[in-house]
């Protein structure tokens, strides 16, 4: 019985009895459960018959099972709520049991004990807080939470759970440490790489031919070198646009004339009045050939226009540069 986890715990005042039908010392007859009077048989005013558990008193422990009813009047007012057999009572108090008088030496008739219910019986009675046989009240104060130390498996399971959590936490901590070290290494490598790139990108005073200040070129030289580029750059979008406007119409005109010529040729051959569609191989081939025949003249005109434009642009750049130098 004592190896099982308690289902209820509390503190009650206990007395003792020994009912074997002898009539000695207030004997009221054989136990109500039908079990013979014996060591370990206890009486409760309300708990089910067959209930098992144990009591503790002054560091001593004794098992019991409920096999009878009692105490009677002493249980009123939630006073005495458990009757232990005389022999068990004597062992808990360190006294002796007298088989002739059915009494315990020392004259002590009541003790305050801690009780632990390990299993409720299936006999008549009510589980839970004890109550007098009259049912006048329920003694809730006689029930307390089960101590963790009384749970046989609870302590071991708790230790095991804590150990498992510690083992799980340790790999996590190791992983965090490794991750932190790796991040630190990567950060260090990145910093070194950036410093190296900055050192490589930094200009050297010796290479510039200066005094180490990085100003080897004079302002005048830089201005002269960039003036022509700036002037030409301003005109580049306009030049590209004009060149496109010159070439595209030429190609379009050549294409239209090529189609017109092809249509005329088809109209004079064999009474046909429509040229082949561009979707056919023959029509596409003839149109391309016609455009190729007329393209040189159109291309020459476009090239001539472009050359004339770029000549004007070069003249403007030259004039601006000459004017700028004269102003200086």
From TrEMBL:
Keywords: Membrane, Transmembrane, Transmembrane helix
Region described as Disordered: 122-220
Highest taxon listed in the record's lineage: Bacteria
Listed Basic and acidic residues bias regions: 150-179
TM ranges: 236-257
Protein name: Uncharacterized protein
Organism (species): Streptomonospora mangrovi
Taxon lineage: Bacteria, Bacillati, Actinomycetota, Actinomycetes, Streptosporangiales
